[in-house]
Amino acid sequence: MPELPEVETVTQSVKKHLLGNNFDSIQVNWKKTLHNFKISDFNNKIKGRNIENVYRKGKYIVIVFKSVFLCVHLRMTGKLYAANSIEKDKKHISLFLTIGDKYLVFEDVRKFGRFYMFDNLDFLDNKLGIEPLSEGFSENWILNQIKERKRQMKSLLLDQSFICGIGNIYADEALWYAKIHPLSNSSSISKKKILNLRKGIIKVLKESIKRGGTTIRDYTYDFSYVGNYALKLNVFGKEGKKCPRCFSVIIKTKVAQRGTHYCPRCQIKR
DNA sequence: AGTATTCCCTGTTCGC
DNA sequence: TGCGAACAGGGAATAC
Ligand SMILES: [Zn+2]
Fold this sequence. Notes:
Blueprint: H1 4-18, E1 25-28, H2 39-45, E2 53-57, E3 60-64, E4 69-73, E5 78-83, E6 93-99, E7 102-108, E8 114-118, H3 122-127, H4 139-147, H5 153-158, H6 168-177, H7 191-210, E9 251-255, E10 258-262
Antiparallel strand pairs: 1-6, 2-3, 3-4, 4-8, 5-7, 6-7, 9-10
Helix pairs in contact: 1-7, 4-7, 6-7
Bound molecules: zinc ion.
The protein binds a DNA duplex through helix 6.
């Protein structure tokens, strides 16, 4: 469910509750949620330690301690929020942590979400590609990098080791913006379109962050707020509707096993 | 190197 | 209405 704008929104919403505080305990209801550590590791390395910073990296939420990092990936249905109590009628709380008189709750219907503990961020640095909202995501960078790959464009945008943070919604929206067919090969895209793709990626991500992300069904932040970038979508979920640019009917297909929406007139395969 | 398939899970929507 | 299939903002592990 959550992509870069949603993860950024969630990160900022929990940050104010975490900074300068510390976790006293953890209760784990779904054991697989702790991907690479145990409760004893939490007790030894995190419990009682000051939270120095909280930020987003790709689609991960990174909670920084003096000598360890706690990272959270929401995957499809994960929700991370601060609460004053644990509601008994919630069926899908995978885990929660206590922080003073509050709770940091991880609720996750599909149970794909994961917590990671790292001594440093080498693992994520090696796994994740460039941050699309960083200065390094320059015109030269994307021109050089796309030429070196021979990939279906949509698959390439979803590849977190290429550009991190883009997911299914923003891949479709950025490709529509740049008039690129999702199955076009990356080696055959014109320079002009590559530069437009960069602009489109930055535009859709930034505008979505401004609006708190996109809520289709599950995603909320701060317990119950929805993101309203859904109002600004041009192709995602718009199959059967008219392209806002040329009025052709938007098509939905599958690319890289994911639902993919595009305009058959604006986005010609090359 | 790049692509397709399957799996991890539960809930909702769709088609007959 | 019922019931199974298909589908869902992600990603890892396979097999070609
Ligand atoms: Zn169009």
